[in-house]
Amino acid sequence: MPKRSSKVKVWPPIRYHAPRSSYVVDVGTKLSAKDPETGIRKRVREYFKTKAEAETYAEQCRAKLKNQGISGFKLSRLEQVDAEEALKILSGKASLVDASRYFMKFNNLPSPDLNIESLVDEFLKYKISATLSPNLKSNSARTIKDYQHRLGLLSKAFGVTLINRFSHQEFLDWIQVRGDVRGLTRTTKALFSYACDKGYIPENPIKGKIPSLKIEKPSILKDDQWRSLVVTALETQDHKISDRGEPINLLAWVVLGLWCGLRPEAELRRLEWSDVNIDEGFVNISDDWKVAIGRHVTIPECAKILLKKCVSKKGKVVSERNFRKRWEWLRKSAGIINDWDHDIMRHTYASMHYAYFGDKRLIESELGHCNSSMLRHYINHGAKMKKKSASFFEFGLKG
Asked: Which of 32, 54, 79, 142 gives 23 a disulfide partner, CB atoms 3.0 to 4.6 angstroms apart?
């Protein structure tokens, strides 16, 4: 049996294949064309009885790569014939690439490598110029901002994708993950309508019926869970995990998360006690934070009582020292370490607030949202929520 050939750095590699008693030349997948039905590149391997035949084929592959580049492997036979005929006509005058560029320039066509990022930049400049020009259809500042935000997301996800390669299906897959079906569909369709009007592409890839987004109800804390969390936070304010450790002191974190629905990282972690006005009953959220417009969030009566019991009301509401260890210890002590989602206190607040007050506009304002569609991701509303919400907002007020 011939010895197995050693690894070589020259492409394509040649190896001895014992089961077939032959030599295999592994061309790989990057040089092969995509299957028109599956869109998958097939790995190319060729088998030869002798090593000399394998080396001859490998040399042919290297010559083909050198002469035609990677694209030479991707052309069909018909395309190769067409290119060769075109080159005969251009012989001694110009290259096929030069002819293509001249044709596109003469017919005012875009570069074939126009990608989505470039299209988005061009489209936004057009929209802004239309706003500034009295002769073009004006767009409001809010509309421009909406285009910038949503098309920025599109550009971030598909920036390098060529506009003539962007498919309806990959767009559907993306918006289902993003969640903003209606808004992203509207702005993306407008973007590609612009591309069609400019003659960049023959038709808009965003077409057909867009399926409705399936929204799962958010997780919220059960009655025994939020009660246990509050009581544990109240009773362990001065408790230390170790002799030199920071006191747990997370009562304010729990109360403001549950009864004010503040964002845990973007708002609660930044909050100073000077932003919390217990007597007048509101928390001031700075407009320098996550939201563009600052707001006042109402502190319910039950939360006022609990906040007054906090052992410290100076500096930051939540000390950063060993915060995650303290927070994990508190949740574990309250018995809910395994059922925790990042925004579960915020979701609990939104669900209880809507069930208790029944006012969508009010909860939008309290949460700091600009539209009601976002509420679908925050509110879990069931048949027994009215009774549960009364118990939630009346906690500690009776007896």
From this structure: 54
All residues at 6 or more sequence positions from 70 whose CB lies less than 8 Å from its CB, including other chains: 30, 31
Residues 312 and 375 in one domain: yes
DSSP 3-state of 277? strand
Total domains in the fold of the chain: 3
Cross-strand pairs, 152: none
Residue 12, preceding bond cis, omega within 30 degrees? yes
Q: Is the pLDDT of residue 356 over 80?
A: yes
152, HSE (Cβ side, Cα atoms, 13 Å): 6
> Which CATH number is 145's domain given?
1.10.150
CA dihedral 232→236→239→245, nearest 10 degrees, is 70
In a domain, 154, yes or no: yes
Last residue in a domain, options 58, 74, 90 = 74
Spatial distance between the Cα atoms of 336 and 343, rounded to a whole number of angstroms: 14
* Residue-number span of the structural domain to which 371 is assigned: 223-393
DSSP letter assigned to residue 161? S
How far is Cα 186 from Cα 196, in angstroms, rounded to an integer? 15
User: 168-178 and 181-197 helices cross at what angle (nearest 10)?
Assistant: 150
Query: What's the pLDDT tens digit per position in 98-124?
Result: 666 556 555 555 555 688 998 999 999
With 70 as the cut, is the pLDDT of residue 3 above it? no
Give the Cα separation of 240 and 326 in Å (integer).
Answer: 9
What lies within 8 Å, CB to CB, of 133 at 6+ separation is none
Query: Does any domain span residue 247?
Result: yes
Instruction: Show Cβ contacts of residue 375 under 8 Å, excluding neighbours closer than 6 positions.
Output: 350, 354, 360, 363, 364, 367, 369
Residue 136 has pLDDT above 90, yes or no: no
Domain assignment present for 113: no
What pLDDT shows up at residue 8? 47
Asked whether the whole model's pTM tops 0.85, one would answer no
| 208 lies in some domain | no
> Look-up: residue for tokens 């294949």?
17
Same domain (yes/no): 140, 64: no
The domain that contains 340 carries what CATH number? 1.10.443.10
